[in-house]
Design a protein that fits this description.
With 85 residues, this protein is an all-alpha fold. It has two helices and no strands. Helices cover 79% and strands 0% of the residues.
Length: 85
């Protein structure tokens, strides 16, 4: 009698499950990071609005500084959601 070939210790189902778990973990991490960025963007928008109302000028230093920070966060957010598609 011939000996049957031994099956590898991990089945294709196990490999698929491992890959699926890794992808889900990555997606959860990505979603969490996106939500944090959305919250930061909302806070910066509120801060910029408050600074504008206080300074009564779009070109006041504080308004411009917050605007630059807001721009950077929006760019970071857009890069993140583009990569995760």
């Amino acid at each position: 009698m011939e000996m049957a070939e031994q099956q590898p210790s991990s089945s294709p189902d196990t490999a698929i499950h491992s890959i699926s778990s890794a992808l889900l973990d990555r997606d959860r991490t990505s979603i969490g990071a996106s939500r944090r960025l959305e919250e930061e963007i909302d806070e910066l928008r509120k801060s910029m609005t408050e600074a504008f109302l206080r300074e009564e000028s779009f070109t006041a230093d504080t308004v411009m500084e917050i605007s630059r920070m807001l721009d950077a966060k929006i760019i970071e957010y857009m890069k993140q959601i583009t990569v995760n598609r």
